[in-house]
Amino acid sequence: MIYVFAMENARSGGPELLHQLVYVLNIIGVPAKIAYFADEYPLRIVDAQPIDIYEKYSVTTESDLAVIDQPENTVVLPEIAFLFLPELKNCKKMCWWLSVDGYITATVTQKGVTPEQMKDVKYLDLYGFRNRDDILHLAQSHYAISFLTNKMGVDKKYIDYLSDYLNDIYLTFDESSSTEPRRNMVVFNPQKGGKRLARLIDETKDEIFWFPLQGLTRERMQAAMRLAKVYIDVGEHPGKDRIPREAAISGCCVITGRRGAAAYHEDVPIPDTYKIDDSTDVDVAKVKSLVFDIFENFDERSRDFEEYRQMIRGEKEQFVSDVMRIFRNDQ
């Protein structure tokens, strides 16, 4: 049995992916369940059921750690749940790196170390899980693979690639059949980019219409993306983020920074023209010029993102293929 740990009542891309994994495993004939843990420290397994948005994945749950921690079982832990590793003494373990930054933040919170200390490999490996035969590291992004090999010193034989895919609601969009004209509008995620994003908006708000993707249902978010011409994300990109892909497959031109996964063409395959240097700040004039160029030449510029969209369209098939390869061989 495969047990996938997920935080209870969480609504975001990471938790949805954990449910998608259980769903796909069961579809291909590999028995799998969700084990929910509480959103508080110390972490503990709780008896909970899927919230409404995950009901379609038809998952069943297990809340007894003694049942889970058996030699014939495999546990999949997202990076925020690595704290369970010392408690799992008998089962095989897979550490799924959905967010590199999420691991650092969780370790600082859970272990009482400082962000500065987390630059030292001895603190990065506080769990002693770098090169163990009972642990396989799954990387959601090529950024995570680089982090594991270059920063943590994990041998490549202990690493495998398992990414994700978007909700089907985004994959059915056909630009040619849309009846709504695109607007000279930029959509953005207010939770990504911090001061860089705030300054960019503040200095261009009289010239550019910015629309925040916040507090929206999935349907309303998709509708906004189908109206806008540009999506901007100068956040940390701790993994292969979903919202840039949702925007791209919904027809937006995407502008990112160069931090985290955005620095890797394998994770964000867009021309370098649309990746701005945001290592310390952003060049407002350069971004503004790029946005207005897209506004004025949208049809032509949109074609620059076809490689990205092709990758996104193929992610579900690739995910299923990778799940079959990794987990059927594990049985």
Model description:
The chain folds into 2 domains: 2-165 and 315-328, 3-Layer(aba) Sandwich (Rossmann fold), CATH 3.40.50; 168-313, Rossmann fold (3-Layer(aba) Sandwich), CATH 3.40.50. With 331 residues, it is α/β, with parallel strands linked by helices. The protein has 13 helices and 10 strands. Strand 9 (230-233), helix 9 (242-249) and strand 10 (253-256) form a beta-alpha-beta unit. Helices cover 36% and strands 14% of the residues.
The biggest beta sheet is recorded as: 6 strands, parallel
| Overall body shape | globular
Share of residues in helices = 25-40%
Distance between the termini: 9 Å
The third-level CATH topology of the largest domain is Rossmann fold
CATH architecture descriptor name of the largest domain: 3-Layer(aba) Sandwich
Q: What is the helix tally? A: 13
Total domain modules: 2
Largest sheet strand order: 2-1-3-4-5-6
Oligomer: single chain
Give unreliable regions as ranges: none
Beta strand %:
5-15%
Tell me, rounded to a whole number, the average pLDDT: 92
Instruction: Report the CATH C-level class of the largest domain.
Output: Alpha Beta
**Helices and strands, in N-to-C order?**
EHEHEEHHEHEHEHEHEHEHHHH
User: Could you tell me the number of beta strands?
Assistant: 10
Cα-atom Rg, whole angstroms?
A: 20 Å
- Secondary structure class reads alpha/beta
